[in-house]
Amino acid sequence: MGECNGVEYVGVDDELASLRVDNFKKVSVLPLVFLIFYEVSGGPFGIEDSVGAAGPLLALLGFLIFPFIWSIPEALITAEMGTMFPENGGYVVWVSSALGPYWGFQQGWMKWLSGVIDNALYPVLFLDYLDSAIPALSSGLPRIAAVLALTVVLTYMNYRGLHIVGSAATLLGLFSILPFVIMGLVAIPKLKPSRWLEVEKDVDWSLYLNTLFWNLNYWDSISTLAGEVENPKKTLPKALFYALILVVLGYFFPLLIGTGAVPLDRDAWTDGYFADVATMVGGVWLSWWITGAAAASNLGMFIAEMSSDSFQLLGMAERGMLPSIFAKRSSYGTPLTGILFSASGVLLLSWMSFQEIIAAENFLYCFGMILEFIAFVRLRIKYPAASRPYKIPLGIIGSILMCVPPTILICIVLALSSLKVAIVSLIAVTIGLLLQPCLKCMEKKRWLKFSISSDLPDLYS
Fold first, then answer.
1. Could you tell me the pTM of the whole model?
2. How far, in Å, CA of 307 to CA of 425, rounded?
C-alpha cells in the first residue's frame, strides 16, 4: 500500500501499540466469505415482506435485477478501494483520503450508526422466529431479558477474537443454508410455475424497495476490518466474488420454492413465513429446522455486524478521529471499547419495530453511500496512477456511469422514507456534523487523548 496516493509512511508516535495486529491470527478466504455473507444477507430470512408488498413476480425479479443495480457496483468499489487501502476503518479512510478528515468522520458516524441500528434488528428477528415455540418471549419482561442475554453472549464472542467469529460464521452459514436445499428437493413435485407470474395491483413500493435494499446492501462493511485479513489485496476481491454468488442464490431459490410450491396468501408473507412454507412442503420437522436456521442466521449476522462496527471505531481511532481509548485492543486482539459502544447502541435501539429499523438504517446508509461514490470517483480522477491491486476495468467516465443507477436508487429510497424516519435520521446526521468539531476542540484543549498510528500512511500530505 506504500504507493497509494503517493504518500509515504510517517512515524507518528503511538503509545497504544502495545498489541500489534501481526500477533493475532488473520482471517482467510472461507471465513471471510461467510463474514461478508452475514454482513449482507444471512439467508432468505427477512425477504418475506417483498412478496407481501408486491407479489411473487416482482419479488423474484427484484432479487435478480437489484444486484446489478446495487450489489455488484458496491462490491466492485469495495474490492478496489479495500485493496487500495487495506486497513481497518475501510470506507472512512477512502472518504478521508478523497474529501478530507471532516467528511471521513461524517462517513464513519453515519455508517457506524446505520450498522448499530441494523444490529438492533437481529435480536428482534431471532425472537420473532421463536414466538411460536416459546410464546412467553413475544412481549414484556421475558422478551427484554432475552434480548439482553443474547446481546451479552454474542458480544462476548466478538471479544474473544475475529478468528472465532469467522469460524462461527462459517458453521452457522452452512447450517442456515442446508434446510433450504432440502426444502427445494422436497418441493419439486408441488411447484406450479404459474404462481411465479402473479402480480399485485396495490404494490407497497416503500416496503418493497426497503426490503430489497436492506437485504442486498452492506457489501462495503467488510472493508472496516481489512487490516485483519490475510493478504487482503488478493483475499478481499475473491471473497467478495464468492459471497456475491452465495447471497444471490441464497435469496432467489428459496423465494422461487416458497412462491411456487404453495398458494399465494399475501398477508401471510411476513417475517418468519418460510417456517410455515416448510410445514406445508415438508412437514413439521422441516419447519423446526428452518426456525433453527433462522435463529442461527440472526446470530451470524449479529456477530459479523458487530465485528465490522467495532473495528471501524478502532480504525477511526488509529487515524486520530476518535479518542485513543478506541484504538486499544484486548488480549485477544479485539477492539474492546468499540465492542462495548456497539453493544450499548444495540440495546438502546432494540425497542424499534422491524420496518422502522429497516427504514432508519437505509436512510443513514444512503447518505454514507453517496460519500463513498464521490470518494471513489474523486480518487480515480485525482490519483489515476495510484497503486490499485484490484482495479475495476472501467475508465473515469465508465466509473461515473456505474455509480449513476445506484445513486438514482438512493434518491428513490430517500424520497419514499416516512416523515418520522426522515426527521430522526436528519437529527442523527446533524449530531455528526457537530460532534467532529467538538472532538477536535477537546483534543486541542487536551481533555481527551488522540493519536495516529505510526503504521499508517499520511493521507493528507
1. 0.88
2. 23
